[in-house]
Design a protein that fits this description.
15 strands; pyruvate-formate lyase- activating enzyme; 463 residues; five-stranded mixed sheet; alpha/beta; Pdz3 Domain; globular; six-stranded antiparallel sheet; Rossmann fold
Length: 463
Amino acid sequence: MGLIQSVDPGSLADQAGLRPGDDLIAINGHTLRDVIDAQFYAADEVLTLRFVRAGVTHDVTVRRAFGQALGIQFAHPTFDIDIRRCNNLCPFCFVLQNAPRMRRTLYIKDDDYRYSFLFGHFVTLTNLSEEDWARIAEQRLSPLYVSVHATDLETRRRCLRNPHAPDIMAQLRWLADHGITTHTQLVITPGLNDGPRMEESVRQLATLYPHVMSVSVVPVGLTRHHKYGYRPHTPAEALATLERVEAWQAEYRRTFGVGFVYATDEWYLLAGRPVPTKRAYDGLALQANGLGMVRDFLDEWRRVKRSELPMIRRAHALFQAASLVTGTLFAPTLTSAAHAFSRLTGIPLRVFPIVNEQLGETITVAGLLCGQDVIRQLRNADLCGDLVILPRLMFDHPDGVALDDVSPADIARALKKTVALADCMGDVLDALLGNSKLLYALAADMPAVTPMQAGGWAVEKYL
């Protein structure tokens, strides 16, 4: 049953008299398994909604205007919270490399095609039943986001550590034949699926364009708990990978009109290369996979610097200085922006790159920082001002906590500083002026606004 969390005012569900706390169980006689069923079966002109309120089942019939949405927010997208588990043992799987004694649900390997359709999570397509395939075709669940890693069957099976993994090219052709488009990714591991195997994968995926819409090339992330003998990429390897991707892009722009294959931001930062312009991403929204996030940050900073900073001076700020926290990979980019910000406003900003001690120094991204690492490394540091600004991505979780269950309020208490969360320099400015909705003051309660955004944690978003 679909527990209703909220009903949009004036919506079809509101007109039908549905309320938060009701359980929607069927539409036009179709039992609902999840929010996808609710969206699919609510497309008819006349809807009979069956729901349960206080243990009593009710039926109500309403007529839907063209394009009118049902207007229901459910407590869980899969209703029963039964997220599909992964049947692979990828050596680079984050779950298998996790630190001990962390949150229980961090050790659950999810691989759910429904979350792929709803939130853009990448899945392997190795655990689908015949019923799942039929449903994907019937309900046109498109696009899907697929972790390919290698198109060669034996190489892919080594990547997944699954000797029974099916032929991914056959699966992608089936999806194409049924009108389903896909975005794909290759997580590149040195000595496993790089070099000629990477080229083979890109070339074979390109044969399915435009049904395969993109290939994201992602560098492997390995924690200090990795047990299978692989290693991360060197800066020289990152540069060589970028050169190959750029050569492919030039070719595919001539044949397809788009770049088709894209390197994620980590390659550019590791190689010390400028990230591409926005138009180089061809309008694709793959930032959740690390593609174009740095460009978004830089473009937003350019707008803030031009349109907002000329009017701001230190006297306007609630906080006269601040410390900015980030991972070691993004620290040079953030430091450059912080220096320019301080120069233009007179407000001192100091960047603190946090070394990821719990997962290992090879994990350099801000979204995987742990709260205790922040506390340990900042507790005796010469902090700048009374405000500490943390990456919002650290807390992209329903409970607003980092990987180690530490909340922004916990960090504020430990450091005896006000804490704010930010994604961009505009957020930094809002925090300094006291306008941030994600401000955690020592004497205040937790803010009502959750730091999590749609499509956040794959495993834990609804567990």
